[in-house]
Amino acid sequence: MNDGPGVLWQPDEVPPETEPVLSRPPTVVSALPSVCPACGGEVGIDGYCTQCGTKVKSQRDHDEQAPASWVGGVCDIGVVHARNEDALAIAATDQPRRAVIVVCDGVTTSDCSDVASLAAVRATTAFLWQSEPQGMGTPESKAAAMRSTVTTAIATANEAVVGATGPESVTGAAATLALAVVTPESIVHANIGDSRVYWLPDEGEAVQWSTDHSMAQMEMDAGISRAEAEASPYAHTITKWLGRDATDLEPALGEHRIDAAGWLLVCSDGLWNYASDPADLAEVFTEAAEGKNGSPLAIATALVDWATDQGGHDNITAACARIEPPEGAVPASPAVVAGAAADDEPTPLDAEDVTMPMMPPAGVTSPLDPTDG
Amino acid sequence: MALFTSTVYQNEFLARGSTDVNAIVTITCAEAGVAGQTGAGDVGEIIMVDTSASMGRINMDAAKRAAMVAVDTIVDGTWFSIVAGSHQAYLAYPRVSHGAGMVQMNSEHRTKAKQAITLFRADGGTAMGSWLLLARKLFASIPSLVGKHAILLTDGENHNEAPEQLDASIRACIGQFQVDCRGIGVDWQVGEIRKIAQALLGTVDVIPGPAELPQVFHDLIARSMGRGVPDAQLRVWTPQDAQILFVRQVSPEVEDLSRRGTLAAPLTQAYPTGAWGDESRDYHIGIRLPAKAIGTEQLAARVQLAVNTDILTQGLIKARWSADPVLTARISPEVAHYTGQTELASAIQEGLAAKAMGDEPTSTVKLGRAVQLAAETGNTEATDRLRKVVDIVDAVTGTVRLKKNIDKADEMALDTASTRTTRIRG
Hints:
The complex is a heterodimer. Chain A is 24% helix and 20% strand.
């Protein structure tokens, strides 16, 4: 929950792998608030308000995080699903403006994906928060260090997901992951599967920074339009995931120097399903941000409410961070120059250059055909 | 201690702007134990027998035999008394004129009570209100009673009291004791007796012939003795901005409880349900809520069964607003079934009332609708009873003709059984 500006998020300990894990432990349940958020009445032991009857969600079903004034997110169960298999962890400080945002979306057809996704976001955020890759100071070595750090972060997330189910589980836990590491100068993002990172600049075109590992993305790569590819019944079949049977943990990643103001958005498909195209999502975002005085938590709440209004067919996670260029930053055109920032001179290293190649088409689906839709 | 469980049947999904939630709540009691022997407190039984002149020798003899069977069926230790009713109410046993008007059953009292019953003579008129008021006073004379049940047998109309007098007597007895009413012959008024039974949480039925009377009395007392939970309340909590549209018992019989609620706790109405044995009862509850945003889930009602202040079971009626028409268009089969059964009961009663007024067109339409509903809801017992009153041309469309010569007893059987429902589940 909101710890106020400058307070550090504290990760929970991930249980060691040696601990016996049931194939289907109970869903993660956190204590219910004792006061109804709708009317202030007392919450009954059945989870409903004793005054107005509002269903009071557990923190696992509705989590709000805003560890710093400029970053906040909401992770919500949505309308249709019985469990929240999305998970969100944010670590941030106001001075310096630093943040780690991690979103995981558990694969519905696998065991304990709600447990797995939560363990993964916590472990990954904790790891990334304590490691700030610098390399040897050169852009190349910094980019290499960043890759190495993100690769270790993904491995950490994978260990957490694998640890969520025991060997006797038929369908071991699986999850997608999208992360963003924000420093005063740059943003690093990475993803496995189809959770996304968007850049929504105040001026200029919105862009989807992440690259999905999904059948839809494969079709788009083959030249099919986004609308057509995402309408396919296999659109949500992911081609990479975290988990016991993961075949490829190479993330799609990128780094961008901050030289323009805008919003960074990390989200699960529970949100982007209803506005996938960056331009459409930017429009939704603008509407959600109206009258929120730039509060990231208020905007994230409005985004989740909007997705709920669209039907809330999946769990919904939206985390946003207000990005301002550091003082003295050289405005560039286009608004954001993608690349690893050097100490003094900008390096024209295109984001595409550091995006890892997609997994080859062979073996795109596991025998379990996991989808997170 | 009895074990209560509850199950809720409903479609909790509401379309945008919808406000009304319907649910069937089944409450089941197990291990109720024997009345008066569960530690919950003492129980009392009063047997009220019509001894008016119209009973005649045959019915009077049958009633005496039945009353003796009832005395035999009452478990030792149970407080009891026998009332002989005509235009006045007489305490037949124990033979006391003041003080405690009931005694605890044992072999001596059983023998003496039966001797007292042999003295019954068919004489005088009928004033059932006075019988009820006497029963009320007798029960009140034993302060330790927690369960109070009576049987009332009559054969005729309430000639010696104005309807208002009877109504006033009934009102005075509400919440004081339960009474199962039985009518013998065809000269009594179903409406009059139903009024008593409904208000006093009992049943009403017609006894076709005097030979069946002893068995009926045995069964009534045996069932009462099997009700180890002397008194319980159905409690319905609703949110502060909600309105209870109705609370109906729909199985085993239709009984509208809506107007019987009293405030038991904040936002909580309590409805009397009387004593419980090992049995299941179904309740149909309708709640109106202000419409909420799509995606909102809230509680529409907490439905509880309470004994004294203990909540023994709770079912939750929910509301979830959804934009998905597949979810919101579904009607719970249980709700649909009992909605039909409730309408069936009304159609039969209204059809017979119209027939009694000589309004054959209305009667034909109502009873036709009843035939249609009985067929739709699979209530074959109702169909069989209706068949004795109407010729069914087409059950699907509800096309019927009133029979010319109807046995009055068949018509009364149809009327008294109109509230009896079938269950949708096994």
